[in-house]
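Title: Prediction job returns without error message
Component: structure pipeline
Severity: low
Priority: P3
Assignee: unassigned

Description:
Job completed but the reporter wants confirmation the result is attached to the right record. Sequence as submitted:
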Amino acid sequence: MRIAVRRLLGAVLVMHGLLHLIGLDRAGWVLWIAAAAAMVTSGVLLTLGRRRWWTVGVPAAVLSQMAVVTEWHDARWATLANLVLAAAAVHGGAADSRQGLRAQYDHLAATMIPDAVDTDRLVTEADLVHLPDPVAAYVRTTGAVGLPHVYGFRATISGRIRSAVDSSWMRFSGEQVDAFATAGPSGAASGGATRVFRLDATTHGVPVDVLHTYLGSRASMHARAMSMVPVLDLSGPEMLRAETVTVLNDLCVLAPAALVDAEIDWHTVDEHHVEATYTNAGCTVRALLVFDDAHHLVDFVSDDRLRASADGRRLEPERWSTPITEYRTHGARRLATIGTGRWHPPAPGEPFDYLEFHLDSIEMLHGRPAVPGAVTAA
């Protein structure tokens, strides 16, 4: 939706710019040509998705409105197009500013990605011995054996999301970087897990930016409409607990190879169910992993996840699961690619899917992650 809106607006700006050429026979024709050139350029840059298109869009709106004023009687309606352009340019500037959620994500993600790369340590069958049989079979099925140990990943996803069962769906695209706590060659733990996740969505034509951060003992979720207006601001112990469940889910669903090094306490229920207890940053969470006969993880269920309340001001406990419906090959690994996020409200409420996701791309990180305490927000 956001891409479609961007391209539509870009096409409108190009057409609006070309209409300025009717001013060639006016006294101020130089102003009209300058406005046309700036408007068409901004429209093309916007259509192509250039992030700093607004640096041309702002002067284009100013030049166009100056030209309109000189021929107010005949051209006054063009003011509406200039106002739309100005609003879009302000949004673009806010999104790219240092205080914007996008810039914060870029800074944190770059800090988390390790400089050193270690591809010499390969996962072997010996690394699977301490895992429960269903988990070991799952790791083996995803192709981890014979490939380097995984200390994190960088991924892009897409899909749609909604806040409640009666809410409309929003299309979204997102990207994230996870760095996991791992055991070094000596067996000593090397820091805690960190995660940053950015999501772009559009609701009723209004763009919404969302940023999740999980850094050391701090976790937060922020959402802004038009990259400026806060609509969600959550942090604190409850958010830390919720995001710790998400990190455990990332480990199990998107980076199963990292399970061989993760500090997880396992309890086998039966050949298809295993309980995982995970502690990070002093926060302990639990989940039930469900496997099918082909050794694929098909569901992840936790009672430790929390859901944002209707007013977006607090978090409330609610059972959460992520059923997985399809696996695909990404490079040399076979990973969960299509699935859903599902809330299970207490009775008499019925479970409902609030998230449909598709893993578009993923890059495994084979270097030691940075120390979480050294990561600071932009």
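Comment from assignee: result matches the submitted record. Residues 182-190, 369-378 have pLDDT under 50 and may be disordered.
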